[in-house]
Design a protein that fits this description.
single chain; about 90 residues; mainly beta; two-stranded antiparallel sheet; about 35% strand
C-alpha cells in the first residue's frame, strides 16, 4: 500500500450499493493509512495491486479452465490528511 502495509482480499468483494456510506469502512476488504504521504519522496505513496483470476468457462457444448490470469497495476496516491478518532 506504499507505506509498508499490505492487504490480501479473497473472493469477489461487495457489490456497490447506495446503502454503504462513502465514509464507512470497507465491508469486506479495506486498508487504513496511519500517516500522510507528505514526508515521503514525491509526497505520494506508490500503491500496487495484483489481481489473480481463475476462470472456468462453458459454452457451445464445450468447457475449459484458464487458471492464474494475472493483472497488475501501480499508481501514486497522495494521502493528505490522517486523523485519529478516539471512541469509548
Amino acid at each position: 500500500m506504499g507505506e509498508g502495509g499490505s492487504v490480501v482480499c479473497r473472493g469477489p468483494g461487495t457489490q456497490y450499493s447506495e446503502a454503504f456510506s462513502p465514509k464507512a469502512s470497507s465491508p469486506d476488504c479495506g486498508y487504513t493509512y496511519r500517516r500522510a504521504s507528505v514526508s515521503v519522496p514525491g509526497k505520494a505513496y506508490t500503491v500496487s495491486v495484483r489481481v489473480t483470476w481463475d476462470v472456468e468457462w462453458h459454452g457451445g457444448g464445450q468447457a475449459g479452465v484458464v487458471p492464474g490470469l494475472v493483472m497488475t497495476a501501480a499508481r501514486q496516491l497522495v494521502v493528505d490528511e490522517v486523523q485519529a478518532v478516539v471512541t469509548r
